[in-house]
Structures are given as C-alpha cells and as structure tokens.
Amino acid sequence: MLEPAPADDWSIEDAAHLLNRAGFGGPPDTLREWHSLGRTAAVARLLKGPEAAGAPALPRWFDPDAYRTRITTQLEERRKLQASGEAEAREEARQLQRRHAMKDRQQATEAAGWWLDRLFTTPAPLVEKMTLFWHGHFATSIAKVKDPYLMLQQNELFRRHALGNVRALTREVVRDPAMMIYLDTHRSTRRHPNENFARELMELFTLGEGRYSEDDVMAAARAFTGLRINRPLGRAFFHRPSWDPGTKEFLGRSGRFQADDIVDILFAEEACAPFLARKIAAFFISDAPSDALVTAIAAEFRRHDFEVAPVLHTVFRSTEFYRPEYRRSRIKSPVQFVVQSRHALELDSLPRALQLGILQLLGQSLFQPPNVAGWDGGRAWITTHTLLARYNIAGYLVKGPASGFRPPLVHHRKAPAANNRDGRERLARQLARRAVADVAALAPPALRQDRHSLLAALELRLFQETLDETARRPFLEYLEQQGDGPPGPETVASLLHLMMSSPRYQLC
User: Domain-by-domain residue ranges, the chain?
Assistant: First the structure.
C-alpha cells in the first residue's frame, strides 16, 4: 500500500502536489526548484525540521518577564480593588478588566497575523502545516482561554513537536495552560474531578468514540487532578494535595495513575494508531481514506513508536500519495486558500488586516476553532456564502477596488484612521495598493503575444498542471472574445479572476 514510488517517476505536477499538501504551494519558480531536487531530496528537505532563519520575529509582548510582570500587576490590582468593598472601587475594577480584555483581543489578533506571516515565509512548510494540523487536532480557542500569551505558547509547543513523537506531545498538551483552561483541568480536584479533558482526550485526541466507558472517563479525570497553573509564569505544576491518590481502574488496568500513566495506556491501546492514522490520511491524502490506507499508516505509527517524521517520510515517498484520484481532491481550507493564493500571485506584502478579515469571512480564524473538535473541514468549507466570498476575494487580489468588492479588515490595534468613515476609506485605499497582484510581472508582454503560452503559464501558476482541451476551453474563449491583439494587463487580470473563480482553483 505504501510502496516507494520509482525514483525516475517524478514530474513537476508531483512536486506541486507534494508542496500543496505538505505545505502551502508556491509560485512557478519554487515548483521548478522543488522538482529539480527529485522526490527523495524534496521529501528529505520537507522533513528537515524548523529553521529559525527568515521567520518573522515573535510579537514583542511574547516575553516571559513582561508577561510575569503584567499578570502579577493585574492580580494585585484586582485583589486591592476587590478588598476595598467600595462601589467606586468596584467600578474601577470593571474598567480595568475591560481595558485588559481589550488589550488581550488586540494581542490575539496580532498573534494570528504573526502566524499568517510565518505560514507564508517559512523555509520549513511542513512544520507549519503540522503546526496547523495539531491546532485543529488539540483544538483550543482564545474565546475561552482569553490569554494570547498562553495561546501563542501553545502554538510554539505544536511547532516544537510538529514532526516529533505524538505521545510526548500529548503528555505536554496535558500540562499546557491554554488547554487546561479550555477544558477545565485547572479546576479539577480530588473532591470534584472534572471530566471534560479526560473525555475529549479519548474521544477526539487518541481513540475515538465507543472505545471507552464512562467509568474510564471518571478514572482518567481522577488521574488528571492535581494539575494547577502558575499564571505569572504561564506554566503548569503538580499540586499533590489536590491529586486523587486512590487506585483507578482504567481500560482494564489498575493503579494509582497520574497524568502520564493515562497517556501511556491510551497509546498502548489498539485503537490509538488507526485513529491517528485516519486523521493524518484525511489531512494529507483524502477526506475519506480507505481502511487499507489507514491500516498501512497505522502500522507505520506502531513501527516508529508514534514518531511523525518517519511516518510522513513513508507516505510522501509512496506511490499511493501521488495517485491521480487524490490530486486536487481536497477543498482548500481558508488558510490554504489565502497562503497559496499569496504564493501563486506573488503577493509578498499582503496586509495582515486584510488576510485576517478574509479568514474571518471564510470561517477559519486562527486561534479560534469553533469547538473542541476543531474545524469540520472538507465540504464544510464551501457554502453559497463562502464560495461567493472566494470569488470576490480572488477578484480583489488581482484588481483591487476596481473589482467592486470591499473586503473586511481585522486590525490588531485600534487604528485612529479607522474610527470614522473617511478614515476607513483612506485606510482601505492604502491597503489596496499593497493587496493587488502585479499582473504585468506575472504575465509580461512577451508572454501575452501567444494565448496558448499565456494560458499554459497561468495554468502552472494557479492549477500546477497543464489543462486538457475541455478544461482550457472557457479560458481560451474568454481571451478570444477580447479581440485579436495581445491581451492587456486588465484583460489578464480578468482572466486570472475567472481562473481563480473556477471549481478547480478551490481544490488542492
């Protein structure tokens, strides 16, 4: 099932498929570069791991010392105001809380913008793709956590373990403060064990439904008691008096289990490897992977003791991964749509406010999955509303305000210019100048002399393939309708819009 593909069977379409699924695509020059490496070297390069060079700097507020000072100050302010008992002090406390909440929202938006920049500029696309995978798998939302520092700390955790050991990552997720707040582990005590995390750990993170009993949930919840958060440090610690030291009966085992014991037992279960394999297969290969494919990937997980890198090494070098029926069979997620469109149109300076607005419009705001199960993905990405939005966004990226579309903007700070109508108009015009593709550079005059050459170049850029006559006909007919001479930049912009509004462009 996962036999290695022949070394000499490696086309530029294969390289594009690998880069689209294991990363976020790339412009034609990038595709040619990866193709020139050959399959073995291209996969090895993807699996090399994170590269610090070239990554955008973390937000300045993501600093342990600054965070400790801020949280300590907030806690002291709240304690003093609550202790006074005066109505004026209570109102002051509410005002402080509102100001802190506003700053948290601004920082959360800045963190999402920072990650988007990293997704586009990263020299290690597979690491970022897996970081996005883990964000959807161990879904945690700023809407409940309300602490951007902890969310970004979790994001860095996913990045460190992106290609590492799933068991080790799960152990750390147990003690991740953002996850602990999101699923209430920090409130769990020996007298009142909270079942939220224990249940989701089994149902959504490791085994799947029907693989455990309610007694197993309670036993695991008891094992997870005793975990607390040192808020000024942003770290978890073990508070022994809150831990339930009694014997737990869990999935047929018995013992005075603590958190790591539960994780180890789960990863020893027969159902764990297939559960993870199905999620990996659905993310990288097919929305509905076959049982045979899941079984093969599960065997790789067991063989490599749940190390991700060797599993993906086998998958990305296999004949199975490159089968024709898997190509362009998955609907691009909003993040994939935005980042891959930037690469295709070579939009190196797309404003964060615009990107974040687009993601919000399309239904995938980073750090805000809809629930603990993450985003549904697949066909759920496309509705009548979001499909029309994709068409409009494509038009804006190649035509700007001339497209007639006014994209939503999400700022990481309250911009004075955005506080009135004139200011918003001015800001939109400023952003538009940086948001429109340079059509003349994408299709220079020499390329526009021949319609078929132009279409072939744009097909590689947008679809990473040469279309057959039937698929190419609507685009060729559009060019023919514009007259006999070489198409101008405005015509090419409309052609790009037409191609990006096709069903084919929504797939990767």
Answer: 7-46, 334-437, 440-506
